[in-house]
């Protein structure tokens, strides 16, 4: 145990800075056990179906959905949706932007599907961005709006020159609810709700265009065998009834609804995007000004407002820094395990108060001034 004890008056009011799952507002947790809670009731009955309806209508308002777009949801997280997309949205071949662990995982899922051709891969090293471009025999284009592993944010737009019938799939797991997007540029804007939407995993949500819904109906009614859990058309049919195919985690639904309502009450996506930009800006300015730190993503235009990755000088042991922080109650600033870099990673999702980020910076300064140096 370290003898370094951060002064109490420096500590953030809420010390949780994980990049997933993110902090859940305490009043939401308390509401789960409040009188009248739907916890422990049937997901096929009106009280829970009302929650699902509120989620769907709230997301439609939050993202200003174009005519014909629908919100669908189902069991499993974004990982399951990758397999669902392979079965229900990709007809023959996709083109994928790969620039981190999670964008790579979706490309790998499509590559392993025995009924699909190998995807066209557009790849960049960690910390940079590669978007898919128009490619031969490609009917689906996919990338992540925010690469959680590296802290790279990507634009949401239709690639130039692609066929009008091509679909654009955006993994928005760590961006939705904290980074705005033009939904009309997408056909499936999907996420699991454990980041900006401050809920638990085990659920996927997708905003679908009429073209995506039609593509799914065509593929799932063809000779291709699709398991029910991976059948997007079946999920859409259930969503229209404000339910999921199988029993969902009710708490996840309740927390998601509460966060959507909270975001709308405070000003919607404009407010959320400004809040995450403010929080992440505190960290990026600190990383640039402190001689012991630097932003991992070098291009300012690519720096995520919701997942901030910061490299540390070789004289600072990131594992020791994170351990000292944890001993002082500051949680989950460890780097992404797959990068293997001497760095920290801080979630600045919508639920994170910018004042807590300012307090975090003060605590990190205090620790860095006092912790032992590598090789000293």
Please tell me about this protein's structure:
With 376 residues, this protein is α/β, with parallel strands linked by helices. The chain folds into two domains: 14-24 and 268-369, Aspartate Aminotransferase, domain 1, CATH 3.90.1150; 26-265, Aspartate Aminotransferase, domain 2 (3-Layer(aba) Sandwich). Helices cover 35% and strands 14% of the residues. The protein has helices at 26-32, 46-62, 78-88, 101-112, 210-220, 232-239, 250-266, 268-289, 318-327, 354-370, and strands at residues 70-75, 94-98, 120-123, 140-144, 146-147, 152-153, 167-171, 188-191, 203-208, 293-295, 307-312, 343-347. Strands 1-9-8-7-4-2-3 form a seven-stranded mixed beta sheet, sandwiched between helices. Strands 10-11-12 form a three-stranded antiparallel beta sheet, with helices on one face. A two-stranded antiparallel sheet has the order 5-6. The longest helix has 22 residues, at 268-289. The chain is globular and about 65 Å long. The two termini are 19 Å apart. Pfam families: Aminotran_5 (PF00266). Keywords: Amino-acid biosynthesis, Aminotransferase, Cytoplasm, Pyridoxal phosphate, Pyridoxine biosynthesis, Serine biosynthesis, Transferase.
């Amino acid at each position: 145990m370290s003898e370094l004890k951060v002064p109490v008056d420096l500590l953030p009011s809420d010390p949780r800075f994980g990049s997933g799952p993110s902090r859940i507002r305490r009043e939401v947790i308390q509401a789960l056990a409040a009188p009248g809670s739907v916890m422990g009731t049937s997901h096929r009955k009106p009280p829970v179906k009302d929650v699902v309806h509120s989620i769907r209508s709230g997301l439609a308002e939050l993202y200003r959905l174009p005519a014909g777009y629908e919100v669908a949801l189902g069991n499993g997280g974004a990982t399951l949706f990758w397999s669902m997309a392979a079965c229900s949205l990709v007809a023959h071949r996709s083109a994928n932007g790969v620039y981190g662990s999670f964008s790579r995982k979706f490309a790998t899922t499509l590559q392993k599907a025995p009924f699909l051709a190998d995807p066209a891969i557009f790849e960049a090293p960690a910390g940079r961005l590669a978007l898919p471009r128009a490619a031969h025999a490609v009917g689906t284009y996919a990338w992540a709006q925010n690469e959680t592993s590296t802290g790279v944010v990507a634009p949401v737009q239709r690639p130039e020159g692609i066929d009008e019938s091509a679909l654009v799939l955006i993994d928005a797991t760590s961006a939705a609810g904290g980074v705005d997007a033009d939904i009309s540029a997408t056909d499936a804007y999907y996420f699991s709700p454990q980041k900006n939407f401050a809920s638990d995993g085990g659920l996927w949500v997708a905003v679908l265009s009429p073209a995506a819904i039609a593509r799914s109906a065509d593929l799932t009614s063809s000779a291709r065998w699709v398991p029910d859990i991976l059948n997007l058309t079946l999920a859409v049919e259930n969503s229209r009834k404000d339910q999921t195919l199988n029993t969902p985690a009710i708490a996840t639904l309740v927390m998601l609804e509460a966060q959507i309502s909270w975001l709308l009450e405070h000003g919607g996506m404009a407010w959320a995007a400004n809040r995450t930009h403010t929080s992440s800006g505190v960290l990026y300015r600190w990383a640039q000004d402190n001689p012991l730190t630097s932003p991992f993503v070098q291009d300012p235009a690519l720096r995520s407002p919701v997942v901030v990755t910061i490299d540390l000088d070789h004289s600072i042991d990131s594992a020791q820094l994170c351990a000292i922080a944890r001993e002082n109650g500051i949680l989950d600033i460890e780097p992404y395990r797959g990068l293997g870099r001497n760095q920290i990673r801080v979630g600045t999702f919508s639920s994170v108060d910018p004042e807590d980020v300012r307090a975090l910076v003060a605590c990190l300064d205090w620790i860095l001034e006092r912790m032992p140096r590598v090789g000293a």
